From TrEMBL:
One of its GO terms (biological process) is fatty acid biosynthetic process. This is Enoyl-[acyl-carrier-protein] reductase [NADH]. NAD(+) binds at residues 22, 28-29, 73-74, 101, 171. Its EC number is 1.3.1.9. Belongs to the short-chain dehydrogenases/reductases (SDR) family. FabI subfamily. Pathway: Lipid metabolism. It is an enzyme of class 1 (oxidoreductase). It catalyses: a 2,3-saturated acyl-[ACP] + NAD(+) = a (2E)-enoyl-[ACP] + NADH + H(+). It comes from Nocardioides psychrotolerans. NCBIfam families: PRK07889.1. One of its GO terms (molecular function) is enoyl-[acyl-carrier-protein] reductase (NADH) activity. Keywords: Fatty acid biosynthesis, Fatty acid metabolism, Lipid biosynthesis, Lipid metabolism, NAD, Oxidoreductase.
């Protein structure tokens, strides 16, 4: 077992073992979530895949406690099958799993490229960004006994946005997927919820052509205001859902968007 030492025995996640999947940079929402989770007492593991794994290992050292880094491509059946053993090298189970993963080809699917988006790219976007919530939950299921919390990240998929295009369709799939997971995993004591965040200047977001249109809307319409470089409100909401403070909540989407979603104009 490697060192996943807790730094706050009195935090809301004290004693919880949490896997945060989808950490590349320190600007990743997953990074901010891992940081808050550690500050709240959790033992944290993080994962990423492919060429960025080296970056993730370096970035991991910037967290309060350097967490184990697991290789997990959510489209790779071997990685998913190996997840329980990979996790058990460090902790003996999981109380929470964070899905902070999405991908859509910005050149073909985003930034006004909705019409004519090629199916191969759409299929990839849906697999990585929506279907993978089920894949990850299924892979982590044997580790989450007697129960746990799965939390994913969405961008409000109830409406059409400028620039978001096929990622919006993938997010609609993710939102529906979380409800079906809540149905099927609830009897095992596993809660499944999403946080719907406003626009944040992460690597993935900056790759979306026209992302600044969304940022401009938030700047004028979010009643609480919105800081697109402050990941802490989103990370805190994810951690709250991982904690015991939402014991009877599942299939829910919590908005962390400065109140934007509730405004008509
Ligand atoms: P990010 O830092 O780029 O995080 C996305 C992560 O997904 C990256 O670590 C990426 O790895 C990983 N990933 C992509 N394909 C994968 C695969 N096949 N297997 C495993 N991991 C894979 O961007 P982020 O903004 O923090 O995104 C995290 C989540 O928040 C996403 O679901 C995103 O849609 C959601 N969200 C973001 C915003 C926003 O404005 N930023 C708003 C609402 C919701 P690589 O970097 O190596 O590709």
């Amino acid at each position: 077992m490697s060192d996943t030492t807790s730094i706050n025995p009195n935090g809301i996640l004290a004693g919880k073992r949490i896997l945060v999947a989808g950490v590349t940079m320190d600007s990743s929402i997953g990074f901010a979530t891992a940081k808050v989770a550690q500050e709240q007492g959790a033992e944290v593991l993080i994962s990423n895949f492919g060429r960025a794994l080296g970056i993730t290992r370096r970035i991991a050292k910037r967290l309060p406690v350097t967490p184990p880094v697991i290789e997990l491509d959510v489209t790779d059946a071997d990685h998913l099958a190996a997840l329980p053993d990979a996790v058990r090298e460090h902790v003996d189970g999981l109380d929470g799993v964070v899905h902070s993963i999405a991908y859509g080809n910005p050149a073909t699917l985003l930034g006004g490229k909705f019409m004519g988006g090629p199916w191969e790219d759409v299929a990839q976007a849906v697999q990585v960004s929506a279907y993978s919530l089920m894949s990850l939950a299924q892979a982590a299921r044997p580790l989450m006994s007697p129960g746990g919390s799965v939390v994913g990240l969405t961008f409000d998929a109830t409406v059409a946005w400028p620039a978001y295009d096929w990622m919006g369709v993938a997010k609609a799939g993710l939102e529906s997927c979380s409800r079906y997971l809540a149905r099927d995993l609830g009897p095992e004591g596993i809660r499944v919820n999403l946080v719907s965040a406003g626009p944040l200047r992460t690597l993935a977001a900056k790759a979306i052509p026209g992302f600044s249109d969304l940022e401009d809307m938030w700047a004028t319409r979010a009643p609480l205001g919105w800081d697109n470089a402050d990941y802490a409100p989103t990370a805190k909401a994810v951690c709250a859902l991982l904690s015991d403070f939402f014991p009877a909540t599942s299939g829910e989407i919590i908005h962390v968007d400065g109140g934007f979603h509730a405004m008509g104009a």
